[in-house]
């Protein structure tokens, strides 16, 4: 993909950054919000770093466009508007810095790949079970980056994909333009392990548009996709494009199941870690949580109760000889969790990935087994729209069925990037009750922190009933969109089809 010649939505030509730096220096670091918006639309570059370095954050100033009519407000209100306008400008300045940081990360991956490719002796042969040529390059890159050799090896592998000529060249460009973050770009590269080049291209084509779709392609306004959302989308894409690889990884992971202990010498505690299947792990955690909530008192937090309940259970249990290995398809799970599955998959006519609300994709064979278990609730959803059953309520407190519906539809807090489980969150009326009804359109789950942010922090929240996307707008005007987790994956357009301009 070629570089994009960006301009602002008003059709203005790109800013001469070298000349702008001199103007900002001459003005002792002062700059207006209008210019910051133009810089945001123009995107990061080598010259942008010089401009950002010249700006004094304390001298960012709103322009007339940002302020109310002085004839219509009091002097005090105008002073407040000026301060808030300057804060909005500083928020844009922070966005510019983070996108410049992403540009620098893209440059680093390109240089890492160039050096490793040129320095590695491709005529060398493995010696003593490792490639002598590569090990030397890895050691040098590790020293330059200040990281361990194994980390440097991973970064070299990632750079082999994330460069202008690599399989993930489009992801590299998105990183260079600052519309995705470095951790998300590296996550994309890590997810390609074991895939063919054709599968890598399909995964990128499926996932990347979803990561950048909420960044305006002209003004560049919007928040980048969070790490957890990107990881979730990659997992879904891999289940769809390479289901056999997912099963192989699961089988390898099952072989590693076990329990480990880590002694924390500094504080006299020990940490116990358990590796088991996803379903067993969820069942285990939910059961422990139910017991902890039942034993909760004023002297202990819920997390302390979980620890106490678990220790008491294990220490007082009788050994069970001859325990059989876990069978994923018949795993017992008596917990308050539902299975989200479409009808064709439930009837074994399709093998679309199913979902454990709040925990991610689930193998369709296992999902069918759980859906048939009368201890599990199943939620059927439309395979085309992703929407599930409808329920309603006219009182302030939602009914149990409506609450269960909301938890299945929105398994996590709807603030962008928040992973707090919906079942441990509060149900918020998007439009305050009684002006807003207690129904599926007006209810969504929020953790306590983000519920307070909406209620007391002057954040505005809207929800698109068709797509399920929730839009949050900060007091400074920053907009961020939380995509709905069950939105169907968009069609992959072939290179021969004209799908309009790229999303970044």
Polypeptide structure, described:
By secondary structure, the protein is of the alpha+beta class. Among the domains are: 1-122 and 131-180, no CATH class; 258-315, no CATH class; 392-482, no CATH class. It has helices spanning 17-26, 33-42, 46-54, 75-119, 132-145, 149-161, 169-176, 182-190, 197-212, 227-241, 243-254, 278-294, 302-316, 343-346, 364-372, 400-409, 448-456, and strands at 31-32, 60-61, 126-127, 130-131, 258-264, 269-275, 338-342, 354-356, 360-362, 377-381, 392-393, 426-429, 438-439, 443-446, 460-463, 470-473, 479-482. The strands form eight sheets. The chain has a three-stranded antiparallel beta sheet, with no helix packed on it. The radius of gyration is 26 Å and the shape is globular. It starts with 16 loop residues before the first helix and ends in a 22-residue tail after the last strand.
Percent strand equals 5-15%
- Total helical segments: 17
How far apart the termini lie comes to 11 Å
What structural class should be given to the helix and strand makeup?
A: alpha+beta
Name the quaternary structure.
single chain
Largest sheet: 3 strands, antiparallel
Note poorly predicted spans.
1-10, 123-130, 326-335, 389-395
Strand order, main sheet: write it out. 15-16-17
Radius of gyration: 26 Å
Q: Tell me, briefly, the overall form.
A: globular
What is the average of the pLDDT values? 80
The count of DSSP E runs of length 2 or more, i.e. the number of strands, is: 17
Helix content: 40-55%
């Amino acid at each position: 993909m070629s570089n994009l010649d960006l301009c602002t939505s008003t059709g203005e030509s790109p800013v001469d950054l070298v000349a702008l730096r001199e103007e900002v220096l001459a003005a002792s670091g002062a700059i207006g919000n209008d210019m910051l918006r133009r810089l945001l639309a123009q995107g990061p570059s080598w010259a942008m770093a010089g401009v950002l370095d010249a700006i004094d954050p304390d001298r960012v100033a709103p322009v007339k466009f940002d302020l109310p009519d002085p004839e219509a407000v009091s002097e005090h209100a105008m002073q407040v508007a000026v301060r808030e306008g300057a804060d909005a400008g500083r928020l844009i300045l922070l966005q510019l810095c983070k996108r410049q940081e992403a540009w620098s990360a893209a440059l680093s991956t390109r240089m890492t790949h160039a050096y490793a490719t040129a320095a590695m002796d491709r005529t060398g042969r493995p010696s003593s079970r490792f490639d002598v040529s590569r090990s030397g390059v890895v050691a040098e890159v590790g020293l330059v980056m200040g990281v361990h050799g194994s980390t440097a090896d991973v970064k070299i592998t990632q750079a082999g994909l994330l460069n202008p000529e690599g399989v993930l060249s489009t992801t590299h460009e998105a990183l260079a333009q600052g519309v995705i973050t470095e951790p998300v770009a590296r996550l994309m590269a890590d997810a390609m392990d074991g895939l063919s080049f054709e599968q890598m291209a399909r995964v990128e084509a499926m996932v990347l548009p979803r990561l950048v779709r909420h960044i305006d392609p002209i003004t560049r306004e919007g928040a980048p996709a969070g790490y957890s959302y990107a990881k979730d989308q990659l997992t879904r894409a891999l289940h769809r494009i390479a289901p056999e690889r997912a099963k192989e990884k699961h089988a390898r992971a099952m072989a590693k199941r076990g329990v480990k202990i880590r002694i924390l010498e500094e504080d006299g505690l020990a940490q116990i870690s358990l590796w088991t299947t996803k379903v067993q792990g969820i069942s285990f955690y939910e059961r422990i949580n139910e017991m902890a909530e039942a034993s909760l008192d004023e002297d202990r937090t819920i997390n302390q109760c979980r620890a106490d309940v678990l220790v008491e259970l294990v220490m007082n249990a009788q050994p069970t000889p001859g325990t059989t290995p876990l069978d994923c398809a018949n795993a017992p799970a008596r917990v308050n969790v539902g299975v989200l599955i479409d009808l064709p998959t439930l009837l074994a006519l399709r093998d679309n990935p199913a979902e454990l609300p709040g925990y991610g994709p689930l193998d369709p064979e296992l999902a069918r087994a759980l859906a048939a278990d009368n201890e599990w609730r199943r939620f059927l959803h439309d395979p085309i729209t992703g929407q599930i059953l409808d329920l309603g309520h006219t009182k302030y407190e939602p009914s149990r069925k409506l609450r269960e519906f909301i938890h299945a539809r929105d398994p996590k807090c709807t603030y962008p990037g928040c992973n707090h489980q919906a079942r441990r969150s509060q149900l918020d009326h998007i439009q305050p009750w009684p002006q807003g009804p207690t129904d599926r359109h007006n209810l969504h789950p929020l953790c306590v922190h983000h519920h307070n942010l909406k209620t007391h922090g002057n954040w505005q929240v809207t929800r698109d009933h068709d797509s399920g996307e929730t839009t949050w707008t900060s007091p400074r005007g920053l907009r961020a969109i939380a995509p709905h987790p069950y939105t169907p994956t968009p069609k992959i357009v072939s290179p021969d089809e004209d799908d309009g301009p790229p999303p970044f």
